[in-house]
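SEVERITY: medium
COMPONENT: batch folding queue
REPORTER: lab tech (J.R.)

DESCRIPTION
The queue accepted two submissions in a row. Attaching both inputs and their returned structure tokens so the on-call engineer can compare them side by side.

ATTACHMENT 1
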Amino acid sequence: MPPKQSSINYVDLNRPTIFAHRGSSHYAPENTLAAFELALEQGANGIELDAKLSADGQVIIMHDDTVDRTTNGTGRIKAMNLAEIKKLDAGSKFPPKFLPQKVPTLEEVFARVGGKLFINIELTNYTSPADDLPEKVVSLIKNYHLETKVLISSFNFFALSRARWALHSLPVGLLTFSGTANAIFQARLMRWDALIVLHPAMADVTSGLVNAVHGKQSRVHAYVVNQPQDMQRLFTCGVDGIFTDDPVLALKELDKYQSKKQ
């Protein structure tokens, strides 16, 4: 039986939090309802997903700028409307038990698993940074009353600022490229508040960085962590959460780590 989750509110998330990266993407098609529901079944504390806008302004869940890698179609998402995207199969590259899987909208994700586990939404409008993705995502969060059960993340600081402007109490995670976490923390995170979370590449995480961020009453969530030795190192550093494709493995490694501490 999956471990009982103590809470899904941001203020008292499990430490460390196990986020299923794009859902339980080691076992199911990434960024699909199947992957998100499987993560819930497996006992993950939260899921991470990627949001962007279709050509007709709908918030859909997909990481890439094109549908080529994860569906049976081809084309750029910003040139396709929702009806066209919904015709694609997002499960064809996995075992038949996942057929059919459609590309979900954020609203569909909220309707299916919202409030059942914590949700990290990455704003991936990197090629169209001036679009209204941040505001549309916040609007859906408010509509589903999930203000304390989601976190918005992005490499785009401007997108995070707009999301916080639309919802001042919203936790946001600043993603950093490998080798930049400490500099960006010093330059940006310290100007904000405890609702700003640092999301560094796992190689950048040290005990010193974690202690510095904790000194600002904030959190560190590392990405993407799939090997046992990396998980153990990060737990030892005191990280507050990890993003992993394999939440089953991560939960086993966390249990090992906590057993050794007792």
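ATTACHMENT 2
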Amino acid sequence: MGYGLEQIATSKYSNALLCKIHNKLISSGIDKSSGQFRKEQVFIGKLAVVTNVEQYIPTSPLYLNSAMRDLEGFIQGKDSYDAIIKAALAHYQFETIHPFMTGNGRIGRILSYLILSGMKVLTCPILCISQYLYANKVEYIDRMERLHQIYKYEQWIKFFIQAIIFAAADSAERIKKWLIIREATHKKIIGCGKTIKAIDKTLDVIELYPIIDVNTLAEKTGISYNTAAATLKLLSDLGIVHQSNKLERNRDYANTEFLKCFVGDILSL
């Protein structure tokens, strides 16, 4: 099954884990070296368009493995750094190294979560800084560039903390909204007059896997294939999930309200 949310939530950071996540996130059709550190020199020229700074040249492939081992040692090391400050410094260093050919932005944001999770600040994957960083992209790049040029750590850390504060407040509001939706879902199921085996576990699973097939539901809940198929059919009839592909067999079902709440209105079902 690869790395789902629950595997990431309980995994200790390592470079090997980061490569596994990259391999899962970036298909080999997009990046032939998916899941591996790059072996070519890359140049980041888009910074000049956004901020008028000079083209940035990330770490040479000759020193990349050594730099990533140093980063791994820093993240795993026992020290007195506050968790958020450590995440801020590691995020900056990761993006400076730019270890993959593609997907460094996404992996860098996941890295921040892995550090906060590993230091027990978070116990589940409910914090996403992507929205803040995207909305403040010019400032984000400018802060990192200033740190690279004149070592202004304080301004970068303050910016990163603001991203965490925004993400935490946003997550809290989305969770409150979801709890209301989840309660309404329970009532809809109870009111339908049919019994769903292991209903609480089923709802937990379709939150961890908001796009799911029958086999995955059966595996994760411990119910039979036929029961899982009937469950998804009933949830679909009740409008709780919707088929997200057009296949007659091997159907995928999307937990639409969950996705709208936490991701946005991205599905046209």
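NOTES FROM REPORTER
The longest helix spans residues 153-191.
No errors were logged for either attachment.
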